[in-house]
Amino acid sequence: MSGAFLERPRWACSLGGALAAAGNLPETVPILHAGPGCAGNFAWANNGAAGLAVTGPCLGLSVPATNIQENEVIFGGLDRLREEILSTFKVMSGRLYFVLTGCLPEVIGDDVESLVTELATRETPHKSRLVMASVAGFKGDSFHGYEEVLKTLILKVIRPSSTKIHHLVNVWGLPPTLDPFWRGNIDGLAELLALLGVEANFFFGPRATHQALTQAGQASLNIVVSGLYGLAAAELFKQKHGTKFIQTPLPLGATASDRFLTRVGRALKIPASRVKKAIAEAGQRHYSYLEPIIDVFNDMEAQRHVLVIGDVNQALALNDFFAADLGWVPELTVITNELTVEDQARVRQYHLDMGGYPPERLIFQNQSHLIAQEAKAIWGETKGKYHNSRRPIFLAGSSLDRTLANELGATHLSLTYPIANRAILTRGYVGYAGGLRLTEDAVSALIAGR
Amino acid sequence: MSYLDSSVPPIRERRHPETALAHGATRCGQGPKRAVCAIMAQADRSFTQGSICPLLPALGIMTSLPETVVLLHGAVGCGACANGNNVNIRAGRAARGQPGQDALWLSTTLTEINVINGGEERLAEALVAADQAYHPKVILAVSGCLPGVIGDDLDAVAAQTQPRVQAKILPVHCEGFKSRFMATAYDVVYHAVGRGLLPDQSTGPKDPLAVNVMNVGSMGLVDEKELARLLGELGLKANFFPVFADPDSFELATRARVSISVCPTHDDYFLEHLREKFGVPYIIKHMPIGIKNTSQWLISLGQELGLAKEARALAKKEEAELERALAEFRPLFAGRTAFVSAGEYRSLATALLLRELGFKILAIRSFHIDSFAEVELAKLDQTGDFILNVANVQPFEEANLIKKLQPDIFLGHWHGNSTAARLGVPTQVIYNSGHAYIGYQGVYDLARRLHRRLSHPEFYARLGRYAHLPYRPGWYEEEAFSHIREAQS
User: Fold this and answer.
1) Are residues B390 and B357 in the same domain?
2) Which of residues 77-96 of B touch A (CB under 8 A)?
3) What digits encode the pLDDT tens for the residues B111-127?
């Protein structure tokens, strides 16, 4: 899929994904053992990519970092890291100190694990702990870093529990920042699960607490809302804590929410009648909000041909939302992740197995100029008087796809990473209410000049 | 021998060994000269927070060049900050009549295999492929940390690949771990530009009216227009380099009458080269931020060109006009306290400006301090005492100081401002391209924005009640500079 280079990458490296994850854990202080510019690099990346959400409680340029220099590259960076960790304990307040190693210490061979083990048992402040993840940039992308953080939580932070609480689940699969709507989407998932009387730990974001995180071993089910991210962590969780897991697509909108509730209900052995009732009530409420715009929605001929560009979670979930909820026509759906051929096949199959809507064309491509070629092959020259133009077009993608939208004459809405042109606070598209918000935003984009 | 004769530029540590990164003390009771000497170049910290390496500001300049591809040679996340740079590039291009154009950056996405086998082949392939895909005038091949530590020879790959590539390949050495000072960024970009985009010798006669004005990434078009206006009043023509300059236009720099720096710590590397090789003299003193500073900047240019009298008259007229315009703001500013944090020159010049507006300066934080600062520190020392903290951001020191000093307003940049804001202090961004800061117009516009902010600080008051900073309560009781120590290498 990828050529000799990657154009305007739509993710950062493993360290970037790990920092976005660890920095959004409750009462957590990440400590970077990395070169001097990594923290700034990610902060400025967020500036143009994360819906303006640059910092968290301990992110941006607040994150403790060894900022290692040539001296450490030559003589090793462990002394500097030891000093930094001990200083961090004195200055920064946290329950969890999370060392993340970047490219330089891993190339020069710093034995960070031994140091962290030593300091974790002897030096860590009262009621807190010190852990690490090895997330050099060359080891993978942001999704990899997110998963490595999950693995550390599972192995070192979450306490084993022999008793399981039936209506408690853990949910993951939305990487903070890479899903620019992750906070709102977590709210949407919590609301959905509450319809079945189920409580959830999400580990990351404003809803999470340190105590709930450490007690996540009590959950009776893990739910991975992704076709790809977090599956290895779910397997690890199962081995370590004996908790089974299910995998579901990110439930954007009503149709996907119906399916999500059905799957969760089945996995938790909640009576089918109760699940059905919850779905029916939610649907009633959903359409009571949608109905007032039907006059205009219908008469303006709002139905669109859709081009979706995004990562494996977002692209397929958006594809399904537009097709199943709005009845729009997915013409080209582009998954931008760097995937092996096997993973590509797995993702396709998973999408079909989950009842996803097959788009006219599904491709795996991460080079913007080649995505543009694919799109222009569909929406190129008008051929003759009677030409099925597959227009008007709606482009659901990142803010980097605005140029393509202009070239195609498409309406554009930034829905996938990177997003430079929206401020995202509580916005999320998961769940029934999320589907209404997505309808609001998509239709508002159509009528911006009204 | 010019620095540009060697393939790799020297780091700031070598070129300006006096450059300091960590310092904290009041300047009370110290003569200006002595005080500068008292700043230890070798100081460091036992606790540090994440910072910025030269790659970030260098990318800010490089991604602005039209018809240029920036190829980052590194792991996929290295240079992800280009997403943020792109916000400025889009705004800068829109201001220049080219809306909706993204910067173009690529990554060689080095992986574990490259760490073992080297990344040179991958770089060569990427150069050829990028040339074919985009047909740019220039490809900037930028080395991040990883190629630097695995030993890729950037210059050799560029030279070997050039015959297969139509675009001009310029290697840029930006390994973050090699310099503690982000100011090294300016040198590495100028090094690449100087070696790759300047002709071997001047291609035409000198233009007696042309002045090279060296802009900075943090200036917007609005600031360039103000300087062009002032030069125009003296009958001069401003050519701006390097930010947003077309690769083909750098040749003009060799034919200008004189070069003048806007930010002295920024430009000496390139201006010295233009003087040595093309006989273009330069002025590198004063930053045209603040009333007196702008006048001095203008007069120093006039003096160089035999227009001293005209420049003085212009400055006098401009100052008088500005003074009348500032009158409505002054009552609110009188005696208010300010805390300033930014790059070396920017912080010092802005502090002088604030004093001109009637503010009392409590503290100044500079990302670094080198010999270029002496002029501004001397000006500041004449008009009052303040705390000088040299820090490449390090918000833990800032938070500690703010709690103790409780300024009325904080002027800083990224994360400096958000730290102050979380403590409930109204903030004003000290540079952000697109807003006016430079020249007389810049003084007025900053005053206008400060007046607006101080008249309506409600957002910060509420934020301060609820926002969270990650420091232990005990940290605020400690001495702010307790983690500064002598460097251990």
Assistant:
1) yes
2) 77-87, 90
3) 999 999 999 999 999 99
